[in-house]
Specification:
The structure is a homodimer. Chain A has 2 domains: 2-84, Arc Repressor Mutant, subunit A (Orthogonal Bundle), CATH 1.10.10; 95-174. By secondary structure, chain A is mostly helical. Chain A has a two-stranded antiparallel sheet with strand order 1-2. In chain A, 63% of the residues lie in helices and 10% in strands. In chain A, helix 1 crosses helix 4, helix 2 (18-26) crosses helix 3 (37-49) and helix 6 packs antiparallel against helix 7. The radius of gyration of chain A is 20 Å and the shape is elongated. Chain A has 7 helices and 2 strands; from the N terminus they run αααββαααα. The longest helix of chain A has 30 residues, at 145-174. Chains A and B meet through helix 1, helix 4, helix 5, helix 6 and helix 7 of A and helix 1, helix 4, helix 5, helix 6 and helix 7 of B. The first copy, chain A, binds a DNA duplex through helix 3 and strand 2. Chains A, B: Pfam families: PadR, Vir_act_alpha_C.
Chain lengths: 176, 176
DNA sequence: CACACAAATGCAACTAGTTGCATAATGCTA
DNA sequence: TAGCATTATGCAACTAGTTGCATTTGTGTG
């Protein structure tokens, strides 16, 4: 259901194609939602079938047609209903934590590789956040309420990543 | 794949039934992995079929048989392979963040309910952590290396939850 | 010129997880 | 004594997400 809602949100802001949505998921929305192109195309088609989206096919010279989706009143209603209902708790799945539960059998070198790899991932994430911040929220003082809200989500993302990194550094220091 | 690995870990520590594993997922492993009984039973049977687990059926007077699973050498090998390979990055899916991206159309009362509900969930999580800490790690000084590792995961869980709560309080304060 | 990449879409087969229902005994509570 | 929780298992149908492959044309790189 949540992918649907995210698609409705991005398309109510501005109609677009599956490919457009994919690009938004890769840049401005990267810390909010990620999905493969296959999933996006399939879901958009299902939503059109369910009457939540309209689809206008724009032929292009010598290239595959662009299918531009826009939200319908029914889609708008579904989005409003989703906004109104608080989200349920999400399931906990922490494969890394599981490895810590079998510490005795987790070879030291594998462990060090794992933690180094995680560290890279976390640093890469911080860089991605910085890029988004620079592009969209370069002046936090000048933000309107509507811009300020998504900016808060970026801040939380950064803070969570920093919490991870601090913990990681402690663990790595202890490992020597 | 990760559910498999988590099942291998819990069963190599001590053989048990699907029901046993479910109980462990509800208590000591609650911040590591959660899965429904259906998923667990199905996966255990598939793993037995793949030769990763042995199954011994223990009949009980007037109740359904207990099926006690234990890990085989093949299962052990699969677990070792999983431990050796660093985990890939996990997909980002933050439905709450998505709601912040449509702030203009997110009614204030729905928003307040959402944040209040989240706050309860986070506080409940902290309480669950405290219960686990009390039961398993009451004396952090006296922990062996093998106990110390899972204790670290609990600490990170707590710190992440606190990061969330601090952020939430800021957002709620700003909302007035 | 060959090769890779970007723009733009899609099918098919798979794995992972959810939801609803069902069974069957025991023990506890109103 | 009726109803509910616990112990213990499972099927069937569903939704969600992944992986591998395939098409067509332009544009840039070595």
């Amino acid at each position: 259901m949540s992918l649907r809602a995210v698609l409705l949100i991005t398309l109510q802001r501005e109609p677009g194609t599956g490919y457009d949505v994919l690009q938004r998921f890769k840049t401005g929305l990267a810390h909010v939602w990620q999905a493969s192109h296959q999933q996006i195309y399939r879901e958009l088609d299902k939503m059109r079938g369910a009457g939540l989206l309209d689809c206008e096919t724009v032929p292009q010279a010598e290239r595959p047609d662009r299918k531009v989706y826009s939200i319908t009143p029914a889609g708008r209603a579904e989005l409003d209903a989703w906004l109104a209902a608080p989200l349920g708790p999400s399931a906990v799945r922490q494969p890394l934590f599981a490895k810590f539960f079998i510490w005795e059998d987790w070879p030291a070198e594998a462990r060090q590789r794992e933690l180094a790899s995680l560290r890279e991932q976390l640093n890469a994430r911080l860089q991605a956040y910085a890029a988004i911040e620079k592009e969209w929220f370069s002046d936090p003082q000048a933000l309107t309420a509507a811009q300020r809200a998504p900016w808060h989500t970026l801040r939380l993302g950064q803070q969570l990543t920093e919490t991870w990194l601090t913990w990681l550094e402690e663990i790595q220091a202890e490992g020597e």
